[in-house]
Amino acid sequence: MSKPHILQVGPYPEWDQVPLDAAFQMHRYFEAPDKAAFLAEVGPKVRGIATRGELGANAALIAACPQLEVISVYGVGYDAVDIGAARARGIRVTNTPDVLTDDCADLAVAMLLALSRGVVGAEAWARTGAWAEKGGYPLQRKVTGKRVGILGLGRIGAAIARRLQGFDMTISYAGRAPKDTPPGWTYVADPVTLAAQVDYLVVALSATPETRHIVNAAVLAALGPKGMLINISRAPNVDEAALLDALEAGKLAGAALDVFEGEPRLNPRFLTAPNVLLQPHHASGTYETRQAMGKLVRDNLTAHFAGQPLLTPVA
Ligand code: 8YV
């Protein structure tokens, strides 16, 4: 039997590419110099799309594949997939939840600690000889015992909160509705109120049209000049212009970001803004987790084409 044709939107590590090539007829969209011509040629044969969280599959890509049955996303966030276009044609969509939760939470905590303690600047202080020339590094902000607000207490948000309990932090969270949480975690309905009562605001929301710029100028003002923002979710959840304005005006103590509008290119204002910690969207970027994500992408495709239930469907 011929192998199902799969449109591959972005690159995968070799340990994924080899088994994908063995099981499916992969068409590497990202390598095609003329994307339109490539799609016109392979689109009619394509029954599956394998994509990455940040690349997704837009309506045009979906429309170019009239036989499309399934979209398998390498990532938990599937906001870049036009779910409406997929649902309208009964196209199934899968993602890679759970396997990346720990890594995303670990990096969020690492970013919070590094930002608050000035780890990156302090490293440069030691490395460049500023320590010997100027003396000790300027004092930083203590983490243990502070108040953290988690915007979006899903799997990743809850994993972040559990870790931060180990730092004796007070945990509050906002989201669509209160959750069943460990004792002492407080639900706050409104993001502005949440920001006003915490030292650190960690954004862990999945991105939807409703959450676009949920962290806006009012939320940042409520977080205030001693407050710090950590975004481990998706760039559109934060109004970047408002964030840069607040940082440049000293109205926010700092921000640590793993995601950016227009990534991988950054707004150049981030390069000069004070007290920002920039990370290249790599919260799930460990060998262990990426291997598990790749396996889940394949297992979902394999299940679909074998007529078995999908492992992690979102549509
Ligand atoms: C990945 C992600 O970096 O899971 C997500 O939603 O954004 C990340 O895990 C990305 O999907 C890998 O391409």
Describe the overall structure.
By secondary structure, the chain is of the alpha/beta class. It has 2 domains: 5-99 and 288-305, 3-Layer(aba) Sandwich (Rossmann fold); 101-278, Rossmann fold. It is 37% helix and 15% strand. Strands 8-7-6-9-10-11-12 form a 7-stranded parallel beta sheet. Helix 12 links the parallel strand 11 and strand 12. The longest helix has 19 residues, at 287-305. The structure holds 2-keto-D-gluconic acid (8YV). 2-keto-D-gluconic acid binds at residues 52-54, 74-77, 100, 281, 284.
Gist of the model:
The chain has 315 residues and is an alpha/beta fold. Helix content is 37%, strand content 15%.
Poorly predicted runs of 5 or more residues: none
Based on the structure given, which CATH architecture of the largest domain is correct?
Answer: 3-Layer(aba) Sandwich
How would a crystallographer describe the biggest sheet? 7 strands, parallel
Output the radius of gyration.
21 Å
Please give the alpha-carbon distance between the first and last residues: 28 Å
Q: Report the portion of residues in β strands.
A: 15-25%
The CATH H-level superfamily of the largest domain is NAD(P)-binding Rossmann-like Domain
